[in-house]
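User: Here's a protein and a ligand (2-acetamido-2-deoxy-beta-D-glucopyranose). What would the complex look like?
Assistant: Let me lay out the input and then the predicted complex.
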Amino acid sequence: MLSHIVAVIPLFAGSYGAYLEQRQATTSSSSTSVPQYFQTTPEIYAGPTPTGRAPFLAQSNPAPFGTSRSFIANAPLETALPIAGDTTNSSIFHLMGQLSPYFPNPSGFGVNEYPLPPGANITLVNTLHRHGSRYPTTNASAEKFGKTLTGLIHAHTVNFTGALSFLNTWSYQLGDEILVPVGRQELFDSGVLHYYDYGHLYNTSTKIIARTTTQDRMLKSAEYFMAGFFGLEWTNNATLEVIIEQPYFNDTLAGYFQCNNSNLPVATGGTNASIIWEKEYLQNATARFNAITSGIEWNTSTVYAFQTLCPYETVAFGYSAICDLFTYQEWEGFEYSIDLSFAGNNYFQSPTGKAVGIGYVQEFLARIQNHVLTTGGTQANLTLDGNPSTFPTNQTLYFDFSHDTNMAAILTAFNLTQFAPTLPTNEIDTGRSLIVSHLQPFGARVDIEIIKTPKPVCASRSEAHYEEGEPTTYIHFIINQACLRFKLPFLP
Ligand SMILES: *[C@@H]1O[C@H](CO)[C@@H](O)[C@H](O)[C@H]1NC(C)=O
Ligand SMILES: *[C@@H]1O[C@H](CO)[C@@H](O)[C@H](O)[C@H]1NC(C)=O
Ligand SMILES: *[C@@H]1O[C@H](CO)[C@@H](O)[C@H](O)[C@H]1NC(C)=O
Ligand SMILES: *[C@@H]1O[C@H](CO)[C@@H](O)[C@H](O)[C@H]1NC(C)=O
Ligand SMILES: *[C@@H]1O[C@H](CO)[C@@H](O)[C@H](O)[C@H]1NC(C)=O
Ligand SMILES: *[C@@H]1O[C@H](CO)[C@@H](O)[C@H](O)[C@H]1NC(C)=O
Ligand SMILES: *[C@@H]1O[C@H](CO)[C@@H](O)[C@H](O)[C@H]1NC(C)=O
Ligand SMILES: *[C@@H]1O[C@H](CO)[C@@H](O)[C@H](O)[C@H]1NC(C)=O
Ligand SMILES: *[C@@H]1O[C@H](CO)[C@@H](O)[C@H](O)[C@H]1NC(C)=O
Ligand SMILES: *[C@@H]1O[C@H](CO)[C@@H](O)[C@H](O)[C@H]1NC(C)=O
Ligand SMILES: *[C@@H]1O[C@H](CO)[C@@H](O)[C@H](O)[C@H]1NC(C)=O
Ligand SMILES: *[C@@H]1O[C@H](CO)[C@@H](O)[C@H](O)[C@H]1NC(C)=O
């Protein structure tokens, strides 16, 4: 079996290496110093262990995916909040853009959902996955505001009454960057779901390579996913390739670090648009808060940072008292502020969106055409991508882990023009396709399936399955369990 073990990419820092060695030591050796009753591997008295056939739900599911499904959602958090103006019992946690905990796309992307036609085979799946729910970014506005507010509260320079009274004893207690518990669960659950969908594509006598980045939440997201997909002994089945995520390193899973302009004001048009909209939709809330606050004056910018703490506190603590201070309409406004931000910073209105994402598109095309990547000029790390031991092209399952904005840039580089229309900043465009909570919530996933059919599939699926013609290969895009319209100029 050792011949299947591919060397893990050497890393620049020692801490990760030590971590990995430890993990390998616990999974591959039976230390005699550990008493039997504390020993977990190798197992003894494990009982019978035969397994059944690997599922292939993505191919065998007779039902369409789509809306009005009855499904079992694992929802451990007590978040059944009374939200003013929520007349339809809708969840505000589905209106939080990239800060929404994972939920399947509720409305589809304007495409009818059908099962695979008979005789069609899924031959490959390429999954691009976001990390799970996390703490805020170090020193971003949410954290800065939270710490400033805490300082004012402790200094008694501010007092609150009414709905804001709880703030008199509130303090900012979030960490930075790393996964929170539900974030681990999102990735584990997704691994489980992906096994149901695609387990059949895994050849049990091989070991696949899956890619993530060096960031703690990225590495751990990949590990939780693998544990969900393969089980706790996943290191027998997959090797994680951990690509350096640091400024000026080439990494298609964090492409902005190789695109200087994407980190300059030229690429913040979305942020600017969002600020214009925040001033509009948060006027009422700002007035409400000022009426019950003494010592400071709220403005739309501080109210926005405060609203942003609701999703972060919720996933960190299970409940946040900040959420129901805002009306349903103000949560719709919050979602739209994030949609504007992504549209201008990462999707089609961004001058650097496609540039950040194009390296991953190159990698995807290379994989499905079974060759390593040798032409550069993008974020791809050709040292890794030019070598089949670090860029294998013989897998039927590819798992990559990335970030929200990077995934948005990749979808833009794939030229998914349904997300291209410019959004107005003075009112919500209710007909838009670009809804970030449907695209890049925590734990988001883009599954790209290669499907081979015996004949061309009918454009109108309501009648016959196939037209007359030759065997045909299709690419099927699925984002967060909903099908996407997609046209690629060429196929393998
Ligand atoms: C919302 O939920 C409440 C309590 O379950 C129920 O009485 C009410 O009919 C629901 N309203 C709608 C519009 O579904
Ligand atoms: C965050 O801000 C603090 C205080 O301004 C600073 O000391 C620290 O280096 C910053 N951290 C990062 C990661 O930027
Ligand atoms: C599974 O992998 C083994 C070892 O590489 C190979 O011999 C076998 O043909 C593969 N099976 C299938 C169905 O691809
Ligand atoms: C993982 O690999 C082991 C050892 O090759 C194999 O026995 C097991 O079935 C694999 N797990 C899955 C979920 O296929
Ligand atoms: C490419 O990846 C290798 C292995 O991690 C690393 O040593 C090298 O610095 C990377 N090159 C660039 C340009 O990022
Ligand atoms: C990006 O910025 C770094 C640091 O200033 C610089 O070394 C590098 O040459 C720049 N890259 C490009 C393509 O301009
Ligand atoms: C603000 O309040 C006015 C008056 O009640 C209302 O018409 C408007 O819809 C509210 N706007 C938002 C964004 O809540
Ligand atoms: C806040 O309340 C405290 C205690 O009642 C009082 O001493 C302080 O002056 C108040 N501060 C403001 C800004 O109202
Ligand atoms: C890294 O990216 C730069 C700029 O896109 C490219 O010129 C260079 O060849 C790449 N380096 C590697 C090792 O892939
Ligand atoms: C791909 O090919 C390499 C080298 O021959 C082999 O070690 C590996 O097991 C193969 N992977 C799969 C998934 O077949
Ligand atoms: C992107 O799609 C649009 C609309 O289909 C098309 O006009 C344009 O040429 C495409 N761009 C690229 C780079 O393929
Ligand atoms: C689908 O797979 C079956 C079983 O391996 C094979 O007989 C059939 O030819 C395949 N169909 C296509 C369209 O590739």
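Summary: Residues 1-30, 65-70 have pLDDT under 50 and may be disordered.
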